[in-house]
Amino acid sequence: xxxxxxxxxxxxxxxxxxxxxxxxxxxxxxxxxxxxxxxxxxxxxxxxxxxxxxxxxxxxxxxxxxxxxxxxxxxxxxxxxxxxxxxxxxxxxxxxxxxxxxxxxxxxxxxxxxxxxxxxxxxxxxxxxxxxxxxxxxxxxxxxxxxxxxxxxxxxxxxxxxxxxxxxxxxxxxxxxxxxxxxxxxxxxxxxxxxxxxxxxxxxxxxxxxxxxxxxxxxxxxxxxxxxxxxxxxxxxxxxxxxxxxxxxxxxxxxxxxxxxxxxxxxxxxxxxxxxxxxxxxxxxxxxxxxx
Length: 292
Hints:
Blueprint: E1 8-12, H1 17-33, E2 36-43, H2 63-85, E3 89-95, H3 98-109, E4 113-117, H4 128-139, E5 144-147, E6 158-163, H5 173-183, E7 186-194, H6 201-217, E8 221-229, H7 232-242, E9 247-251, H8 265-273, E10 278-281
Parallel strand pairs: 1-2, 1-4, 2-3, 4-5, 6-7, 6-9, 7-8, 9-10
Antiparallel strand pairs: 5-10
């Protein structure tokens, strides 16, 4: 198995509370990997920015004044991060569809990870969850880490790695283990089986063995558990919350009729309902999967 390291991280900035949590998490990962950061803001209508930015002079009444204030705020973030952590930070403002502009930036700049909030600016439509976030998870060629408002990062010290019978389930291992190693995280290898699954437990355990061995080669400590349920997505969410996990990793294609093209039912449920940050990984399609 060839592990995937992080060299370039894209953080969409919308100045929402969830967006601020994403900046904190993305900056943390950039610091430990010594990765470059791209802060990207996609402009919205001029009335959708906080009025307190402009004071009593009502300078937010024109497109130019709003763009100037947005640029100022974005540069404040960039300068703070660069000064505090010593990583390279670039700030970019663009216009258009957020999902299109974000995925275009990933392709054009060869990004390794997107870290984004799951909700848009307070008081406005949920720009990320259900629309932009879902589209980006579907479209992005690189993994996407989605962060809910209120998440308090302590260092990604507990990571849940669900493994099931889906074709590409183990492919995410190469994305997760480098993060776990850098964060010195406890890795929860969670075997997920449907109640109706008649597969041999011994055969399934061989699959889990390969994941545990890959983690142990990196010196990681693992906890291993197999659970059954009628809804394995909710079982994964429940387990992650019970162990106070700080990351839950999934493949985007699980239970999808068009593997690698659209987010499957399992992935949609987890991204929509998990309070724990979700790392979504698009599979490399093919007839076989391997974690070796």
